[in-house]
Amino acid sequence: MASLYDIDNSIMAIIESIYANSVNEDGEIAEVDFTALEELQAERKAKIENIALYIKNCNAEALAIQNEIDTLKKRKERLERKSEGLGGLLVSSLQANNDTKFESAKCAVKIRTSETTEIDDQSLIPSEFIREITHEPEYKPDKTAIKKAIKAGQQVAGAHLKVNTKAVIE
After folding, report:
1. I want to staple 143 with a disulfide (CB 3.0 to 4.6 A). Which of 67, 117, 137, 165 is the partner?
2. Which run of H or of E encompasses 8?
3. Cα distance between residue 62 and residue 112, in whole Å
4. CA dist., res. 85 & res. 91, Å (int)
5. Exposed e or buried b for every residue in 31-46, given b needs 16+ CB within 10 A?
6. Local confidence pLDDT in tens for the 170 residues of the chain
């Protein structure tokens, strides 16, 4: 089957031929056979329909893929929450028994401690700890600077350090 482009060109060629050959030398309009033109028109309609149906199929498949992505994303988030909760259970159990690690032939568990800067009230943060976000027209607390200041013994109103513990499984 010819391409839509080729079919359109063939139709135009037949139409031009009909116009060029429809008047004979005596000025009379000659009889024209439209069979080839009708066949090309039918082929063109079938080609357009097939292309449209293929587009619909592509759109349906893209939607099905997006739905699967959404389903997998929700599943991933559920598993991450479950993992986080079970990790907290391990940390609690190890800390309750004054252990800092657990080892077996199949895995090793260690407790990792980190600190994050928590902002209690942004309006209380001193201006020296506020930075402008260059890609946004707003100002936010500079948590890194606040953390350094608190660790150096300085009091920063509206902020505190939070100790986080996490089970690291190898």
Report:
1. 117
2. helix 4-21
3. 42
4. 10
5. eeeeeebeebeebbee
6. 688 888 888 888 888 777 777 766 666 766 767 788 888 898 899 999 999 999 999 999 999 999 999 999 999 999 999 999 999 999 999 999 999 899 999 999 999 999 888 888 888 888 888 887 777 767 788 888 889 988 999 888 888 899 888 888 98
